[in-house]
Specification:
Elements lengths: L9 H10 L6 H10 L11 H13 L3 E7 L7 E6 L1 H16 L7 H6 L7 H28 L4 H5 L2 H26 L6 H8 L8
Length: 206
């Protein structure tokens, strides 16, 4: 490797993993991610992110140019392949990502931590809206899994979808309970109560 090993990221691990199968150009990486449904777990909406990731992997010696081709649609297409160092690093990243829980910082828990800035009625409205969207997502995941059958080979390539279904179902159960408590008045608050709870000399008094 010529440069320091780049940081493990969802997109970097995905690119290295896909290049284990065959050499690909950046557009081919994006297309394969979508064909295999991996765009449900890694963001590839902007192809520029794939180009930047490949550039970092190339500088680190984890991928290398396989060939430069030309066709009628594209003036030039560079195919990349994974190197032996890239195979080793991909394996290290995979073992670490699967075996070691990481502290992640998704946006939803952050918003929940400041939900008291809304009224209970406002919170009820937006959480009902979220619950509907989550329920629709869960239905889609269930359909995707049902379409693949239950043989072992299909299951191993859909483990991330199984995980998404479990996490989505858990979120929906939690949202349903909170919405029910808001509707029944078991969960309620007011800015005055929060100010009193915070005590004097806090930001709530400003």
């Amino acid at each position: 490797m010529t440069d320091a090993t780049p940081r493990n990221s969802p997109l970097a691990l995905t690119v290295l993993s896909l290049l284990h199968y065959r050499p690909l150009h950046p557009y081919g990486v994006q297309r394969l991610i979508k064909e295999w449904g991996k765009d449900q777990v890694v963001n590839v909406n902007q192809r520029a992110g794939i180009y930047r990731t490949i550039e970092r992997l190339l500088a680190a010696g984890l991928v290398e140019v396989h060939e430069v081709g030309r066709d009628q649609q594209y003036a030039e297409r560079t195919l990349y392949k994974v190197t032996d160092a890239g195979r080793r690093v991909a394996r290290e990243w995979l073992l670490d990502s699967l075996g070691t829980p990481k502290q992640e910082f998704p946006q939803f828990p952050v918003a929940l931590s400041f939900a008291m800035m809304l009224t209970p009625e406002e919170a009820l409205t937006v959480l009902e809206q979220r619950a509907e969207a989550v329920a629709a997502s869960l239905e889609g995941l269930e359909e995707a899994l049902a379409a693949e059958g239950d043989d072992g080979l299909s299951r191993v390539v859909l483990l991330e979808t199984e995980y998404q279904r479990a996490m989505t179902a858990a979120q929906l159960r939690w949202l349903t309970s909170v919405v029910e408590d808001l509707r029944a008045g078991r969960l309620s608050w007011s800015w005055e109560e929060l100010t009193a709870l915070a005590g004097p000399g806090t930001a709530l008094d400003d």
